Amino acid sequence: MLGGGLVGLAILFFVLALIFAILGARGVAGMSMSVAKWLVIIFIVLAIISLLL
C-alpha cells in the first residue's frame, strides 16, 4: 500500500477523489475527499498523542 497505515489510505482516497473529479463524478469525489480529510485528521491526532506519551 502507499506508505501504509492512515497516511497511505488518505493518499489513496485523495487520488481517487482527483480521478473521479476529472471524470465528472462529483458525489464520489466529494465522498473520497471527505474520507481522506478524516483520515488525515485522525493521523495528526494520533501522531500528537504518540509524541506526548
Order of helices and strands: HH
Strand content: under 5%
pLDDT averaged over residues: 78
**Terminal-residue CA separation:** 28 Å
Structural class comes to mainly alpha
Largest sheet: none
How many independent structural domains? 1
Unreliable sequence segments: none
Total strands: the figure is 0
Shape estimate: elongated
Radius of gyration: 13 Å
| Fraction of residues in H or I helices | over 70%
Count of DSSP H/I helices: 2
Short synopsis of the structure:
With 53 residues, the protein is mostly helical. It is built from two helices and no strands.
Account of the protein in words:
With 53 residues, the chain is mainly alpha-helical. 87% of the residues lie in helices and 0% in strands. It has helices at 5-23, 26-52. α1 packs antiparallel against α2. The mean pLDDT is 78. Its main location: membrane. InterPro entries: DUF1328. The chain crosses the membrane at residues 5-25, 33-53. Belongs to the UPF0391 family.
Short descriptors:
0% strand, 53 residues
Set down the secondary structure blueprint.
Elements lengths: L4 H19 L2 H27 L1
Helix pairs in contact: 1-2
Keywords: Cell membrane, Membrane, Transmembrane, Transmembrane helix
Membrane topology: Multi-pass membrane protein
Pfam families: DUF1328 (PF07043)
